[in-house]
Amino acid sequence: MKLVYFLVALLALASSLAFAYDPSPLQDFCVAINDTKNGVFVNGKFCKDPKLAKAEDFFYPGLGPGNTSNPLGSKVTPVTVNELLGLNTLGISLARIDFAPKGLNPPHTHPRGTEILVVIEGTLYVGFVSSNQDNNRLFTKLLNKGDVFVFPIGLIHFQQNVGYGNAVAIAGLSSQNPGVITIANAVFGSKPPISPEVLTKAFQVDKNVIDYLQKQFWYNNS
């Protein structure tokens, strides 16, 4: 019976570890610093002495419009722990996404965070694709000003401005550093390149197609 209790406890512990992302803080705040001599390393960042924290550590100035004059017609302005040091250990971040008319935030994933999006201005066509286990179903919606949509953690998703004017959205993310993997950039723009033999077989296309795609300039809008 003790063995059963031990196994149950072990499984519970493993389950809790497997589904934990950003750990909960055990103090009021842990402002990140780049001082490796005097700081304490917590969740990917060194922390300053809490007694030295100041209001500026929790402040990000002017989340203004991003420059959408690029091939994608969109610009993501992130506010993660890298931009706002007071976010360290708090498990949240956000981003502003600006879209020119017909602009696209291309298919991408956030490996460490769920995203919830609210449209501030304009009309967006948004969607995500479920995993192989769910037969890669596509979920899409047309969002107008004030509408909210959620993209589950790790799933490929996108947003496109389908209006004739500019669009703006704010995204909240469930990690201080959710990360981003833009699919086209990662697959066809990796350094060094993925073997064409691998990609030719994976996408079931001619090698000339892969060669063409790998020669393109894959713009990063974030």
Automatic annotation (TrEMBL):
**Which ranges of the sequence are coiled-coil?**
none
Give binding positions for oxalate: 105, 110, 115
Query: What Pfam families does this protein's entry cite?
Result: Cupin_1 (PF00190)
Leader sequence range is 1-20
| Binding-site list for Mn(2+) | 108, 110, 115, 157
**General function of this protein:** May play a role in plant defense. Probably has no oxalate oxidase activity even if the active site is conserved.
From the Swiss-Prot or TrEMBL record, give the protein name. Germin-like protein
What organism is recorded for this protein?
Answer: Abrus precatorius (Indian licorice)
